[in-house]
Amino acid sequence: MLDKKEIIKNLTILPSFDEAERDLEGGIRLHIIQRLYKLFQPLPIHIDIWNMVISLMYQGYIARNPLDKNYKRFIHDTGKQIINRTYDLNNRTDFRTTASSGVIIGFSGMGKTTTINRILGCIPQVIAHNSYQNHHFNHIQLTHLTLQTPHNSSLKALSLQFFMKVDEILGTNNYKKYVSRNLSVDAMLPLMGMVAHNIGLGLLVIDEIQHLQNRGVNQMMNYFVTLMNSFGVPVVFIGTPASYSLFQNEFRIARRVTGNGEILWNNMDNRDTFRFFIQSIWKYQWNRNFTSLNEEIIQLFYEETQGISDLVIKLFVNAQRLSISSEREELTLDVIKKTVKENFKLMKPMLDALRSGNPYRINQYEDLRKNEVFKVKEQSGLDIESKLIRKGEESKVSPQDALEVQRFQRAVNKKKFNLAVDDIRRSFFEGKSKGVPIYQILKDEGFIDDMNMWEGTGI
């Protein structure tokens, strides 16, 4: 349980640096620059993720006190039923879970996985208990485990990965003991839950959740809901914006995530956070001539990276490499621009889409979709997301929520909202008021492609 200052201290990783190293041979300095890839500068969003992870872990343990008689009886009875193959996942009334889930959805390159690994790295993964409050207590606890979502959405592959990773960390033989070639997924899930109980698993992290394919989404989500409800294991999902629709479409997961831990991580705006980030790394220059940070450089860095932290570091590293190898030994605007031209070729279409601010162009790249949930808060204090207005969604909300949705719709029709300039709804309202066809408005603003360019090509 740490305060903000202690959290920042625990997360910070600063590379080794000595100004005297600027006088070393160029070949040596080219290797030294690689230290920058180890840098971890905590930002406000990292504090939010820390608090989410710790909260989920602590809350998940509340109902799983290994010294509680009722819980010990539940573990014993569950294990016996699983062994005898009489365990029923759908009929569990003797265990009330306190586990929940969290989700981190953000741009590629913002450091989602790195941040989670850094936070979990501050927590001992394995704890060997000998005693508790002067009582004998012999237990090995696994506080967290990270799994990668299989590319083919295979539940069996995920289950096998679970057993293998637990065995790798603890030196156990669960895979050999429980897994057989003909064992079904339905049979594996209770075994996973039993192992999770036995090792006191505090948190399960599922990374790259966007790999879930349509045919495997519902089955996989049911899998995670069961893991939380029946065995009390909190789950954190990590994915790119391509995975956001998975949670919107699965109401049970969305309900659990909302209010417990939902981090939507877009690229940084050219404001305080981005400027703080670039200022924090700028002193790590191994060019012979130190270049002071100025407004022109800040603007150029943002223009060429669009506030994606991984690209900021890569541009900073490669610009230094170019200045050293070319013997210029100074970070100039020309060096930075040349670095972008030589090293960011593959990313140019994506970065151009971000610079345009055109949602149509941005949405062509699933990893770059901005997660901007449009909400309205009525006097009742209830938040209604605009996605609830979609046709067919009314059946999933209560009558009171449906009434709030109707109020939301009336408010939209009356144009009570201050919509952003690039908001497609603004185009709709303006076109309607001017009598201009909506199609023409959307075409003029770049939301619709002009297909005339393909005429005569034979395509």
From TrEMBL:
Record carries keyword Repressor: no
Keywords (A to Z) from UniProt: Membrane, Transmembrane, Transmembrane helix
Transmembrane segment boundaries: 187-206, 226-247
SUPFAM superfamilies xref list: P-loop containing nucleoside triphosphate hydrolases (SSF52540)
Pfam families: AAA_22
Domain ORC1/DEAH AAA+ ATPase: 98-242
PANTHER family (UniProt xref): GENERAL SECRETION PATHWAY PROTEIN A-RELATED, PHOSPHORIBULOKINASE _ URIDINE KINASE FAMILY
The protein's name: AAA family ATPase
